[in-house]
Write a structure and sequence with these properties.
Elements: H1 9-21, E1 35-40, H2 49-57, H3 60-63, E2 67-72, H4 76-88, E3 95-99, H5 100-108, E4 132-133, E5 136-137, E6 140-145, E7 147-152, H6 153-159, H7 168-180, E8 184-187, H8 195-201, H9 203-207, H10 224-238, H11 248-256, E9 260-266, H12 267-273, E10 284-287, E11 296-304, H13 311-321, H14 324-334, H15 347-352, H16 356-362, E12 367-368, H17 378-394, H18 399-413
Parallel strand pairs: 1-2, 1-3, 8-9, 11-12
Antiparallel strand pairs: 3-11, 4-5, 6-11, 7-9, 7-10
């Protein structure tokens, strides 16, 4: 998975810490497999879903009463930078969830504890394969989330839309119908001030037209397929159906409050939308993305801090999390995501959440949004791409020109 050297300010923090701590990495002074471990995850703060997830996680303590879990929670927008700084300085949580882009940088910096012994008895599925680096399992899949088109049934009915669109042209038409009814039509992230989330949301647009960021050897930012995806994105914004300026928190709230017809979002968000009671599972409907090809997924990785104070207890938790008991326990709170093993959807959950099956089906075909061969450089690549995409929708820059400029700048920066 990782084939190139790391660059950037965040990496400087990580690698400096790694070099300083090489001699002292080896865990804390506590008894192996006992004591308290801190678990870092921004998801603890998700309304409704976070509480359910923590309740599921702490069932681990029933099987290992000598180990206690302590919650470490940071909002998503600050989570990655804070974790990089803490772990690079030899601190941070014992076990944590990270997105695959951050996993790649931490793995390259030598700051993740190998988990081979901890997962030896687990029936891991293929989603874990690219988390094995140079023969060492440095992480396991916490959840792999797909993206789908989500609709608010109440709003769509008010707008006279009978079903979710299957093409971008139909998406625009449905959004315009919602506008005629005095409602917002469609929303997605679209601003650099939400870069961390947008960098995972956006690749589905270019992947949906057969694009990719590289061919394994060189960048392919300015490919015809990527330009087609950016063009479709621009067409949607040019149509006027998007409430420009609304961040994800705002448009998700509008969606739950029957003010917005459609969004493209992931399976974790879908579960959050129905977890606080504002939007019923019956009123949330889902469909594949309105693109010709499969979109991209977002992978969340469970890993252990190589310089943590209680590594053995942390690995005991990982071992439980990927066991049949752990996967079955975690499954309802993780909703329609793909987990580390092929544990099926909870039957009761499926019946209560008919929107979930779409995500399960999409999980079989969608692709990683990381650039092949440039995984550790995903961050500067996505920044370069999205800075140009933002210009496309704010300055009316032509998609072909935007992708060409991104290609040229990134080739120079990463050479």
């Amino acid at each position: 998975m990782i084939s190139r050297s790391l660059r950037g300010a965040s990496l400087a923090v990580i690698t400096t810490g790694a070099l300083v701590l090489t001699a002292c990495s080896g865990g804390g002074d506590g008894e192996a497999g006992s004591g308290a471990i801190t678990f870092g995850n921004w998801q603890w703060l998700e309304t409704g879903r976070g509480d359910a997830m923590w309740e599921a996680v702490t069932e681990f303590e029933d099987s290992e009463p000598e180990i206690q879990l302590e919650k470490s929670e940071t909002p998503f927008a600050q989570y990655a930078d804070k974790l990089n700084t803490e772990i690079g300085a030899g601190a941070g949580p014992d076990v944590f969830v990270v997105l695959d882009r951050q996993f790649a940088t931490l793995a390259e910096a030598g700051l993740l504890e190998p988990l081979d012994d901890a997962v030896a008895d687990a029936d891991l599925n293929a989603t874990n394969d690219n988390l094995n680096i140079d023969g060492r399992q440095l992480g396991v899949t916490w959840e792999q989330v797909s993206y789908a088109l989500l609709g608010n049934r109440t709003v769509l009915e008010q707008a006279g839309v009978d079903q979710l669109p299957t093409t971008v042209e139909d998406l625009i038409a449905a959004g315009e119908q919602a506008g005629e009814a005095g409602l917002d039509g469609f929303a997605v992230r679209h601003q650099m001030n939400e870069y961390n989330g947008w960098a995972y949301d956006f690749p589905s647009w270019t992947y949906g037209y057969g694009g990719s960021w590289s061919d394994g050897e060189r960048l392919t930012i300015d490919s015809e397929e990527n330009i087609a995806g950016v063009t479709a994105y621009k067409d949607v914004f040019d149509s006027g159906i998007v409430p420009v300026g609304d961040d994800a928190s705002t448009f998700r709230s509008k969606f739950k409050q029957d003010q917005l017809a459609m969004i493209i979002d992931n399976s974790g968000t879908a579960l959050s939308l129905v977890s606080d009671g504002q939007l019923s599972s019956e009123d949330l409907i889902s469909a594949p993305l309105p693109f010709p090809e499969p979109g991209a997924h977002q992978k969340l990785v469970l890993a252990v801090n190589a310089n943590g104070e209680n590594k053995e207890a942390a690995k005991e938790f990982v071992s439980w999390a990927v066991s049949e008991e752990g996967q079955t326990t975690l499954r309802p709170s993780l909703g329609a995501s793909v987990l580390a093993t092929d544990v099926p959807l909870d039957e009761e959950f499926s019946e209560a959440n008919p929107w979930a099956e779409t995500f399960v089906e999409l999980g079989r075909t969608n692709l990683s949004g990381l650039p092949d061969g440039f995984e550790t450089e995903a961050d500067p690549i996505m920044r370069g791409v999205l800075e140009q995409v933002e210009r496309v929708i704010t300055e009316d820059l032509e998609p072909a020109e935007a992708m060409r400029e991104a290609q040229e700048a990134l080739e120079q920066d990463l050479s």
